[in-house]
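Bumping with the actual sequence this time:
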Amino acid sequence: MKLAVVGVTGLVGRVMNEVLEEMDFPVDEYIPVASARSAGKKVNFKSKEYEVVTMEEALNARPDIAIFSAGGSTSLEWAPKFAEAGTVVIDNSSAWRMDPTKKLVVPEINAQLLTKEDKIIANPNCSTIQMVVALAPLHRKYGIRRLVVSTYQSFTGTGAKAVAQYQAERAGARPAKEEMAYHYQIFENAIPQCDVFLDNAYTKEEMKLVNETRKILGDDTIRVTATAVRIPVDGGHSESVNVEFDKPYELDDVYDLLRNAEGVEVVDDIANFRYPMPLYSKNRNEVFVGRIRRDESLDNGLNMWIVADNLRKGAATNAVQIAKYLVKNHLV
């Protein structure tokens, strides 16, 4: 098994290495890949030191699997080249997610759709992944008519530049404009903008929640509206999700479905002030669900609070789980 990790020096790339080690992913030859300016740097993997190589060198090595986390433009240029060479690419960018010829995969929900013909597999957006992991079992039983989503997303989702901005501001510095990932300070603030604004006044992040949810759940009739907010939390996205079902439900059944759902941990004990928080999801691979309660203003309405580590299940963990599924089912 030859495995390449593309973007290995980035935030997600570093977490990717941690998850690969923790899950004991079978690797005979490990190929760390980054941009030309990072070539020659050293990274550690499974107690060994490796030298970072360029995209060209990695392509020539013909890995069995390449996990990309290097941005959309890099993926659009290089993923087809790797695929043509026989490599299965698992891509963490937004480049291929809505391509009708590519599968958008959350293993707990739709990994069974994958075949040997799938050479480029899209990893969904972080905020979408955690939400659909919790919603999929409910959708299968009750049918989701409409979702109203508000997200509270860690600055780590923006990348290293945002982390540097937050750390500088927390230390009392005022970064220069060109050093800032956001238009405003993120420390002690909440910014109601994740990614760029589109013509409909929604942001790209908000529309990812709309379009990717429908694709993963396989239902274009689900109505979704979202507001995505960036908050000064060091790791972990939180979501307030209001669901309207087609069918009536019982709360006890909802709890049972979620407790038995793969990858979900229910934390919902308000008598003892137990509910999901990013503080407790950090460095964890599960999706945490709590504050589950009936929406008393709406027939068949339900409120949920969903939290996960955006660098883990929202990115690296999901990608590694896809890779493990491919290996286990002899699809690579």
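The tokens above came from a reply further down the thread. The mean pLDDT is 97.
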